[in-house]
UniProtKB/TrEMBL annotation, chain A:
One Pfam match: ABC_tran
Name the UniProt record assigns to this protein: ATP-binding cassette domain-containing protein
Organism lineage string: Bacteria, Bacillati, Actinomycetota, Actinomycetes, Glycomycetales
ABC transporter domain mapped to chain residues: 12-247, 261-507
Record organism: Glycomyces albidus
UniProt keyword terms in alphabetical order: ATP-binding, Nucleotide-binding, Repeat, Transport
GO MF term list: ATP binding; ATP hydrolysis activity
Matches recorded under SMART domains: AAA (SM00382)
Gene3D superfamilies recorded: P-loop containing nucleotide triphosphate hydrolases
Keyword Lyase: no
């Protein structure tokens, strides 16, 4: 099936790359070809070997067998610095710049324009301004980097890499924290660079973006090469099939599973009336019935997270009232919320969800233990049984309850977090971006779980940046824009991606 | 297991120190002798007895550090505990009354517990950084101790049962060793038989995630500072009982630094999270043994601080994964073993 290599001299040619980590073969004879001016997506589930392949190319890891040719010359980089000197730059998912330095200083750190022995700050600011103008973003280059959003910081990191005149630019999940407009800016920059002859390796979980921007795709699975295709020749469903190693359309099966049961007649579980918090989210009304999945859609920064945090008790509301099971909720905080049966999986797994150093088992029982208080420890036998049960039920891999949770992949971490809350048998489950940055398989697992749980009578508040996912799972969809809840879409006909986008664009006024 | 691995390096250091001492002074160093009065003695038993106050403080400090905090006031609290107990006793007409000693000890412990709760409230409820919150009492505490003693050094009669706390023995074993062992056991049970240890590690490892999981982190934080101060007060009592007096200015001076040192040697990171009470205990014994070692190998006592610094340096290096990888690299290369993988890479598969 894979297309034969097209003509044109390869810029990077990796052949038969093998990489072993103690006992585990991370890459097994993988080939990868990158041509000048192409945008090449490397696709695969978490653990397929994408990151390892990139790290071999950029000198983070050495390889155990195989060959790398750069411009036809065999190379072996022993450090990222050596790779950078050879013209291979990388922009990582996490911004690795210095927060408290200015934008300009970050752009030119290590290669500042000089005036004798001194840094020529004026020239530096001017060049920085020109550079950012060039890629179409407008920032105050003298302001500290920390005064801008993560998305903007990401663009600064990219601008820096762009300016270093790289032959090869590697973008590892650069868009995961960007909103739609910012993604457009980034893709525009990528197109311009490609036209100038820069070759780019693009890694992203967002299939739409991959299809929009990439010329070719290399698909990996379990450390082996599945094949290389021109993007135009590979339909999405086939791509997913290749990545998962099973027939495509697994995701489609969940389609509207939630709508199999009727929830219109159920009594309301949550009623928010004029609930709001200054500077965070304007007062809103929202009702969640028993067994209902309510999706929250909107762009990054539209107030999706802020909306659910008030109901979760994670933030304190300064206006309005919240009713839960028909009773008014007072003195709402995370602890009392959990006691009432409100479970909250926050947006940022690492900083707000999991305790990295603790084991899988400990992270799972944390909420249950917290509700019992420290003095009443969960008996070891019961704990082991519960943990084993949920590892099995959610398919957490590796199935080792004593492993520090920080060593798990994103999808498995998300499942651990879900297990933590399922253990307390909640009535309302709040999921803020539960599928962000995780692989397709885990994503399907989590979506299926949401559908199952709601069929069992659990209510779910579901926040996601991916509109497909929201429309597929939700019974109703609340649409947000500019920190305001502008519409609630109820009818089957309204709950489409297009309708949501229209609503956001119209600002809710016409609907 | 992870726990055993963490304890390995401190144990090796301790064993090495003991071996050095045995070489220098013979097996008498480690084998306890029996004194004429039937009590156990000998160099190592004496080290353990002298280390008891530091052990108590270091155990409390371990719990505080597990929550990502630090308690600089333990030395001052030591002095306050000592001052209150001694002053209460010398103010009474009959210093030998058992009831008096009992109530003196109780008053001292209650006051130190209140001080600890104060520290905890400042950290947990007012959000003051632990190092600043406890710095206040580190400075003010010695002043309070001076006010208690009126600027004098209260001397308790040798006949008072209070001195037994520091000098006495039970079943041939010195009382301070009993107290330290009991507190170690009690804290180990308190943290590992209940869920307190795990919740502490959770709060220290990720305060925000712990809050969102519904943990009462404020209450736990106050409890931990309270326990720490209580341990420091108890240490002050033992120290004062041993000397028969309470010196508000110099009692327990700089002991907070030795305690932090012992915690770090024992494998608990200052970043909070995982803690190792047994590791801390080994760290304390290392520090105690080190002081004797310097004399036994024939160095002058001026070497004490330098030697301590060297031990800290070595332990810190051995605990650093980067250093271990670097030093083991040439050894591991030979059998053509692949380089050790960063954990997340392996797990991701």
């Amino acid at each position: 099936m894979p297309a034969t290599a097209p003509p044109g001299a390869a810029l990077v040619q990796m052949t038969g790359i093998v990489k072993d980590f103690t006992g585990v073969r991370a890459l097994d004879g993988v080939d990868f070809t990158l041509r000048p001016g192409e945008i090449h997506a490397v696709m695969g589930e978490n653990g397929a070997g994408k990151s390892t392949l990139i790290k071999v190319l950029t000198g983070v890891h050495g390889h155990d067998a195989g060959e790398i040719l750069l411009d036809g010359e065999p190379v072996r980089f022993h450090s990222p610095k050596a790779a950078q000197a050879a013209g291979i730059s990388t922009v990582y998912q996490e911004v690795n710049l210095t927060d408290n330095l200015s934008v300009a200083e970050n752009l030119f750190a290590g290669r500042e324009p000089r005036l004798g022995p001194f840094i020529n700050f004026r020239a530096m600011r001017r060049k920085a301004k020109a550079l950012l103008d060039d890629i179409g973003i407008d920032l105050n280059v003298a302001a500290p980097l920390s005064s801008y959003s993560i998305a903007m910081q990401q663009l600064v990191a990219i601008a820096r890499a762009v300016d270093i005149e790289s032959k090869v630019l590697i973008l590892d999940e650069p868009t995961s924290s960007l909103d739609r407009d910012e993604v457009e800016v980034l893709l525009g920059v990528m197109r311009r660079l490609a036209a100038d002859g820069t070759a780019m390796v693009f890694i992203s979980h967002f299939l739409d973006q991959v299809y929009e921007i990439s010329d070719r795709m290399t698909v990996l699975r379990n450390g082996t090469l599945v094949g290389e295709w021109a993007t135009a020749d590979l339909p999405q469903s086939e791509l997913i099939g290749h990545m998962l190693g099973r027939e495509a359309a697994t995701l489609e099966q969940i389609e509207r599973a939630a709508s199999a049961h009727r929830v219109e007649d159920e009594e309301p579980l949550v009623e928010a009336r004029g609930l709001g918090r200054k500077g965070s989210i304007a007062p809103y009304d929202l009702t969640v019935r028993r067994g209902e999945v309510v999706g929250l859609a909107g762009l990054l920064g539209s107030g999706r997270t802020e909306t659910v945090r008030l109901i979760a008790g994670a933030d304190r509301a300064d206006s309005g009232a919240l009713q839960f099971e028909g009773r008014r909720v007072g003195g709402h905080n995370s602890r009392t919320a959990a006691a009432r049966g409100i479970a909250f999986c926050p947006e940022n797994r690492k900083t707000e969800g999991l305790v990295g150093d603790l084991t899988v088992a400990e992270n799972m029982i944390l909420a249950m233990q917290a509700s019992r208080g420290w003095a009443r420890s969960i008996p070891v036998a019961r704990r082991d049984k519960l943990v084993a049960e949920f590892i099995e039920k959610l398919g957490i891999r590796p199935a080792d309850p004593d492993m520090p949770v920080k060593n798990l992949s994103g999808g498995n971490q998300q499942k651990v977090l879900l297990a933590r809350w399922m253990l307390i048998e909640p009535k309302l489950l709040i999921l803020d971006e539960p599928t962000r940055g995780i692989d397709v398989g885990a994503k399907a697992d989590i979506q299926r779980l949401v559908a199952e749980l709601s069929a069992d009578g659990l209510s779910v508040l579901f926040v996601s940046a991916e509109l497909d996912e929201v429309t597929r799972l939700s019974d109703r969809i609340a649409v947000l824009r500019d920190r305001e809840l502008i519409a609630v879409l109820e009818s089957e006909a309204d709950m489409t991606t297009e309708r949501i986008v229209d609503t956001i664009v119209a600002g809710g006024r016409e609907s | 297991m992870n726990y055993a691995k963490r304890l390995m390096w401190p144990l090796i250091i301790l064993l090495a120190l003991i071996v050095v001492n045995i070489v220098a002074t013979g097996v008498d160093f480690i084998v306890p002798s029996v004194n004429e009065d039937g009590r156990l003695g000998g160099a190592f038993v004496n080290i353990l007895r002298r280390s008891a106050p530091l052990l108590l403080i270091a155990l409390g400090m371990t719990l505080v550090i597990a929550t990502k905090g630090i308690d600089l006031s333990v030395g001052a609290v030591y002095a306050i505990g000592a001052a209150i107990a001694c002053q209460t006793i010398i103010d009474a007409p009959d210093q030998t009354a058992a009831g008096l000693v009992f109530s003196a000890v109780a008053i001292a412990l209650v006051v130190t517990a209140v001080i600890g709760a104060w520290n905890g409230v400042m950290v947990a409820y007012f959000g003051i950084q632990p190092i600043v919150a406890t710095l206040i009492l580190m400075i003010a505490g010695r002043g309070i101790a001076q006010l208690v003693t009126g600027g004098q050094i209260p001397k308790v009669q040798d006949s008072s049962p209070f001195t037994e706390l520091g000098r006495g023995a039970f079943l041939a074993v010195p009382i301070p060793i009993w107290i330290a062992a009991l507190v170690l056991t009690a804290l180990a049970l308190l943290t590992r038989r209940t869920a307190l240890g795990m919740l502490l590690e959770s709060v220290g490892g990720n305060p925000e995630a712990s809050r969102l999981a519904g943990i009462r982190s404020k209450g736990i934080t106050v409890l931990v500072y309270l326990v720490c101060a209580l341990c420091a007060g108890l240490a002050g009592l033992i120290g004062a009982a041993n000397l028969g007096s309470a010196d508000a200015n110099n009692g327990g001076l700089w002991i907070e630094l030795d305690a932090i040192l012992a915690v770090v040697i024992g494998g608990t990171a200052l970043l909070g999270g995982r803690f190792f009470l047994l590791g801390t205990a080994i760290g304390v014994v290392i520090i105690g043994t080190l002081e004797d070692t310097i004399i036994n190998v024939g160095l002058s006592s001026q070497w004490q601080f330098t030697a301590k610094a060297i031990v800290v340096f070595v332990v810190a290096l051995l605990q650093s994964p980067e250093f271990r990888a670097w030093i083991l690299k040439p050894i591991k290369r030979r059998p053509a073993a692949p380089a050790p993988a960063p954990a997340e890479e392996v797990q991701a598969k």
